[in-house]
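Hi support team,

I've been running sequence recovery on a batch of backbones for a student project. Most finish fine, but this one hangs at about 90% for roughly twenty minutes before it completes. I'm not sure whether the input is malformed or the queue is just slow. I've pasted the structure tokens below so you can try to reproduce it. Let me know if you need the job ID as well.

Thanks,
M.K.
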């Protein structure tokens, strides 16, 4: 009983604890509204060192610099779009974890569904081809010739019975 309670308590504490972020206490803005904006923007920006992490999650020095830069721009009065545009102008589209849907990123957005659809079409064509195999088109090809039937009868007759040892 005590073990079950202890295990339930540990699971509840771990489940209720917030995710660990790399934001340091000295980076946090005094205004909670501006800090929330900074955190939201930081989750949308890629760490240029880690590449698959947001700057909010990364502990790399460059990610810290980017977090501070985001907070500086917010403190200066920039809107979220202005902050993003500033960083894209400085670092390129790669800084965005979710690239914008624009003509030069269209292939990036359309390639996965096109590959998925192409795979589905290939599977469908393959199944149709298999169903139309030589035996499916001409039922007379499934019949044995007289010679093949005689040979089959000889093989069956020469085969020992299952209950007799070989």
């Amino acid at each position: 009983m005590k073990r079950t309670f202890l295990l339930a308590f540990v699971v509840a504490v771990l489940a209720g604890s917030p995710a660990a972020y790399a934001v340091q206490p000295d980076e946090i803005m005094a205004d909670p509204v501006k800090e929330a904006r900074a955190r939201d923007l930081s989750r949308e920006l890629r760490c240029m060192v880690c590449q698959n992490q947001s700057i909010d999650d990364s502990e790399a020095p460059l990610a810290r610099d980017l977090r501070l830069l985001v907070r500086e721009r917010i403190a200066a009065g920039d809107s979220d779009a202005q902050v993003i545009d500033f960083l894209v102008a400085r670092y390129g589209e790669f800084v965005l974890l979710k690239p914008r849907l624009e003509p030069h990123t269209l292939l990036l957005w359309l390639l996965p569904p096109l590959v998925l659809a192409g795979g589905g079409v290939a599977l469908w064509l393959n199944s149709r081809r298999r169903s139309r195999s030589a035996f499916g088109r001409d039922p007379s090809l499934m019949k044995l010739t007289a010679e093949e039937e005689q040979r089959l009868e000889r093989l069956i007759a020469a085969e020992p019975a299952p209950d007799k040892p070989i």
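--
Follow-up from support: It reproduced on our side and the slowdown came from queue contention, not your input. Residues 150 and 156 are 10 Å apart (CA to CA). No action needed from you.
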